[in-house]
Specification:
Elements (H helix, E strand, L loop, with lengths): L8 E11 L4 H12 L3 E8 L6 E11 H13 L3 E6 L6 E12 L2 H13 L3 E5 L3 E8 L1 H15 E6 L3 E4 L6
Antiparallel strand pairs: 1-3, 1-4, 2-3, 5-7, 5-8, 5-9, 6-7
């Protein structure tokens, strides 16, 4: 993140309910880039039957003041219905999906398969020289699995970014 900040930085997972219309995502991204705020993760998808509403989940970091500014500026965008800082409003669940390709034979292949089983990653494609694993979970779990795959022939990683939802009866 650019600019000077005072105070401790924190990671914020912010859920934004918006109208599902052209240009909304560009406006949200523009808000971040125009002020020099970094986006660690961004996901967006329609969430209602009619496809009128989309939910944007953005993970960012900054001081408490910066996070409050981000939330206030998001809330002022016209197509925004609601902004929630899930990290501050109570318990929430956060998960990612990753596809991880490992290329290798022999012992490296066997070790990759063993570790995948330990991490509950599913094999979704396999050839004699490669395997693609599908994994869901907390970002830290996926990071740990990827780190273990590096010496075994990690070739490619594709991640969704964080999805998050409040626990219990709270909703966006």
């Amino acid at each position: 993140m650019s600019g000077t900040t005072t105070g401790a930085e924190r990671v914020a997972t912010i859920a934004v309910l918006v109208e599902n219309e052209a240009g909304v995502l560009a406006r949200v991204i523009g808000l971040f880039s125009g002020r020099g705020y970094n986006i660690d993760s961004l996901t967006v998808a329609p969430v209602d039957e009619e496809g009128r509403l989309s939910r944007i989940t953005v993970v960012t970091r900054g001081t408490e003041m910066v996070i409050e500014q981000i939330k206030a500026q998001l809330d002022r965008l016209v197509p925004v219905h609601k902004v929630s800082d899930l990290t501050m409003e109570g318990p929430h669940l956060s998960r990612e999906l990753a596809l991880i390709k490992v290329i290798g034979r022999g012992d490296n292949r066997m070790e990759a398969l063993r570790l995948a089983d330990a991490f509950r990653a599913r094999v979704v494609d396999a050839t004699p020289e490669s395997a693609v694993f599908e994994m869901t979970g907390a970002g830290e779990k996926i990071d740990a699995f990827i780190a273990l795959m590096r010496p075994l022939g990690l070739a490619e990683v594709c991640r969704t970014g964080a999805l998050a939802i409040a626990r219990g009866v709270r909703s966006l």
